[in-house]
What does this fold into?
Amino acid sequence: MSARARGGRLILQSLTKRYPGMVAVDGMDLEVESGEFITLLGPSGSGKTSTLMMIAGFTPPSSGEILIDDQPITGMPPERRNIGVVFQNYALFPHMTVERNVGFPLKMRGLAREEIRERVGAALDLVQLSGLGARLPRELSGGQQQRVALARALVFNPGILLMDEPLGALDKKLREQMQFELKRIHSELSVTVIYVTHDQEEALTMSDRVALINQGRIEQLGRAEELYERPASRFVAEFIGESNLVEGRIDRGNSDGYDVLVTDSGIRLPAAGLPPSQSSGRALLVLRPEKIALLPIANPCRGAVRGTVRELTYVGDFTRYRVELDDGAVITAKRPNSKEVVRAGAGETVQLIWHPEDTCVLSA
It folds into this structure.
């Protein structure tokens, strides 16, 4: 391939897509910096793919603007946008060899045969498919076909690469391998990546930032650890990872130096991070299961919460505990399967303890 173009800076301004009886994308605003890897994450029907199709030019927006490097492209045809697209189903031409599939965008652009040959060779080198150019798609594995589709999307040096569930058809092990390969390729190039997935682990491990989309709007935008450790809403806390969500009221100024969430039954749960603007009223405590330690009841700890193990499930690297508190509420805890970690059995009374700073408190 020739010298790599600088990744495009993408801006969405009040981007909206309406269909009869529904709004798929609802006034979305988003700025993606040059060379950034942004993932649009969300459940099915949240508007992720509709957003991607509008950026690509395959679907016209109902209103709003799309800009690349500060130039409006909303009405520009797809072939003039300098955007590469990779779909889940690969969309390879079955009657064409790998080389011809990858070279197709260059042929459509009228490049000379020798330049096409050189660029195709470089693109296949990039995706580690050198030597397979003469094969047909049906002679390749699913992972190899996905690499061909990626090479075809990159061969003309796009400023932006759009990827719509590109690993959805692969098994778990191959998905993980391809995630590594995509990150490697992104680190080698300066292309800007907009990646669509409903797989939260994929989004958290691959992205510079994640835009969690709900009902056509961005619910929260930030780095992976921001969404996981400090969710901005109940939806984010429930969608990203596993959470214990407990409602109650906040008791500030605890003698131990931290706030306490008091449940309706009076159980006091150590907490921190209540927005300063809220000094009273209902609140929602978000507590990740892996932040909780289980300790024997024999030596009571300050701030611990008493409960009974009702169920435990071995999950390989950790065990999941379902612990019933004295008021009947159930808390889930996850503990590593290590000799250094205290284990508990079903029916055993334990105390649950966590650092208040490991919680997140939202306005209920």
Q: What stands out?
A: The two ends are 54 Å apart (CA to CA).
